[in-house]
Amino acid sequence: MRYLLSFILGIVFLSSCNIEPKEINYGKDQCRFCKMNVVDKQHAAEVVTKKGKVFKYDAIECMMRDYKDAHDKVALFVVNDYNTPRTLIDAKTSTFIISENIPSPMGEFLSAFSTREDAEKVKKEKGGKLYTWNELTALFKTKKGVNMSEKKKSDMKCEAGKCAPGKCGGK
After folding, report:
1. Distance of alpha carbon 30 from alpha carbon 122, whole angstroms
2. What is the residue extent of each domain of the chain?
């Protein structure tokens, strides 16, 4: 009987620690890093820890800043596919673009694509520079952010309604 109880408790414990992303409740979920509500369906991101805890972000750059030195604790990094809003894709296999013609919620102009071909098409239209996951990770480890060292927050472009007070020039 004791072994049966241990077995059942083990099954319950293992099933409660699912290592998978959770659906983002846009407009209600809050970014773990900057505390803004997650509203942008093209730039949101999530981290799933090895223990199954899910953290949501309003922008890829918030996720990168929050976990830049803690990759060993993370099971999954997922990001929204720019071309397919609300669709979470594996960040490690994504191609990223930094283009000042594609504003993101925190002013880094950072977007993700499920394929390099999709990113290259957008780059031809909007300009910018492409990055792999490893290149992007290295970039965020060496700087506080991509554009923060080059521009003042008040100089950054932002889309109406996407900036919180004091963030990238928001009022």
Report:
1. 29
2. 27-147
